[in-house]
UniProtKB/TrEMBL annotation:
It comes from Thiomicrospira aerophila AL3. Its main location: membrane. The chain crosses the membrane at residues 16-34. It is found in: Cell inner membrane. Keywords: Acyltransferase, Cell inner membrane, Cell membrane, Membrane, Transferase, Transmembrane, Transmembrane helix. The keyword Manganese does not apply. It holds the Pfam family Lip_A_acyltrans. GO terms for molecular function: acyltransferase activity. This is Lipid A biosynthesis acyltransferase. InterPro entries: LipA_acyltrans.
Length: 324
């Protein structure tokens, strides 16, 4: 509670009270049994689907672009499952990461996880180079770093929030103890820090799949649609000789095998990308997009479709939905 008291002292003015109310609600939810939080989260996701009209429309428009071969009813089913997944992210997983035990090893009996391809991770670590653990934005991103901590020490990269209190809460929520190490998130704006860590043979948790309109962006197809994209993965790997290890997490439900919570997680490690970077940023980015698409198609409802990946206007969203 010490960190919460410190934040309360720093952000005690009336403009922050609404956020503190939400934080208090999440804290209360964190005291419920995790299994109950999972169940309640799904219902909250259904409510969000009904009430969050603009986000629902964006999700359906994104799905129309990504999966034109599916029927409107199939895409609607994915959208509903997506909002349930969002509910789990906020009310089960975020409450666990933000308000659960500070030490990672104190949570091991609370979250069930299976690892696939651990040999690929060990092969990459054996090369004694920095590691860029590459993963897209799935709805379980808040829990992913915690799961990684079972096997390795890494620094998650995060995008600073514009609101100072929210940013402080995110930073604290993604900081926890792993053995003798403390996992400290690194700002996506702090390129020097990222380069320094990689040159020190450390690992970064990196999520470069979202829309990027800044300097040096490239427009590369994503699910067949032009998408403004970041080339930082190629540049970081070139500057530091770090290995890029694609890593994907999936949330599954199996109450027979995991009766305690019902839900469990699968973390898949792939071999470090050979010949990456190639010297062609556009080609490298397309290669990453192909990897993302392959994994997203396995469980499309868990990708973060509420993000406006294709920078759609309200008019474009309306036009896409009118097709159906």
């Amino acid at each position: 509670m010490t960190h919460v008291i410190e934040l309360l002292r720093q952000f005690k003015a009336p403009p922050y009270w609404g956020i503190w109310l939400g934080v208090g609600l999440l804290w209360l939810l964190s005291k419920l049994p995790l299994k109950l939080r999972y169940r309640a989260s799904e219902w909250l996701g259904i409510v969000l689907y009904a009430l969050a009209r603009s986000r629902r429309r964006l999700v359906l428009a994104n799905l129309a672009l990504a999966f034109p071969e599916k029927t409107p009813l199939e895409r609607q089913a994915i959208a509903k499952a997506h909002f349930k997944s969002l509910g789990i992210q906020v009310f089960a997983e975020m409450t666990e990461t933000w308000f659960g035990p500070y030490r990672s090893d104190q949570r091991e009996d609370r979250l069930a996880v299976e690892f696939e391809g651990k040999e690929h991770l060990e092969a990459a670590r054996a090369q004694n180079q920095g590691l860029i653990m590459l993963t897209p934005h799935f709805t379980h991103l808040e829990i992913t770093g915690l799961l990684f901590s079972r096997l390795m020490h890494l620094h998650p990269i995060y995008r600073p929030h514009d609101h100072p209190l929210v940013d402080a809460l995110i930073l604290r929520g993604r900081t926890f103890q792993i053995g003798e190490h403390t996992t400290l998130p690194v700002s996506a704006n702090d390129t020097r820090k990222m380069i320094k860590l990689l040159r020190q043979k450390q690992a970064l948790g990196y999520l470069p799949d979202q829309r990027y309109r800044g300097k040096g962006h490239v427009t590369i197809p994503f699910f067949g649609q032009p998408a403004k994209s970041h080339t930082a993965t190629s540049k970081l790997a070139a500057l530091t000789q770090a290995l890029v290890v694609p890593t994907f997490t999936e949330r599954r439900f199996d109450p027979v095998r995991y009766p305690k919570q019902g839900w469990y997680y699968v973390v898949r490690f792939y071999p470090a990308l050979d010949g990456f970077p190639s010297g062609d940023d556009a080609q490298d980015t397309q290669r990453l997009h192909t990897l993302y698409e392959h994994e997203i198609k396995k469980n499309p409802s868990q990708y973060l479709w509420v993000h406006n990946r294709w920078d759609l206007s309200k008019q474009q969203i309306a036009a896409l939905l009118q097709r159906d």
